[in-house]
Amino acid sequence: MKLTAESNKDVVRQLFIELDPRTARGALADVLADDVLLPADTLPNGRQGLAGMEEHLEFMGSRVEIAFDIIDMVAEGDTVAVRARARMKILAEFFGFSPDGREIDIEQVQFLRIENGKISEVWRLNDVAGMMQQLTA
After folding, report:
1. Whether the predicted pLDDT of 84 surpasses 80
2. How far apart are CA 117 and CA 130, in angstroms?
3. Can the peptide bond before residue 21 be classed as cis, meaning omega within 30 degrees of 0?
4. Domains of the chain, with CATH numbers?
């Protein structure tokens, strides 16, 4: 199967569908390699691979209601760059903050490497300063 920039972007779009509880189909394994390399700060404990992402989504889903929007996406070779927005409503203790129903927006940038039609590596940078500013407002 010849991978193109567009087919790689399609894989990443599908990941964002699976990350968003509004649209998830339970098909993470369709887009993530079993041994996907995730950022070391992936909550709750930095576990790697598909199992680590599933654990991350369970952890986050128990604390926040979340929705994702892709703002920009660019692909070159086997790498896709994404600028996205996560809108979250706090449902349980989150980074030491009590659940008060407030909604926050967090912008993030991700670089994802595609190998054999699946995401094999994820690098992510969240606007943590912006998140903390919203949480302490």
Report:
1. yes
2. 34
3. no
4. 5-136 (3.10.450.50)
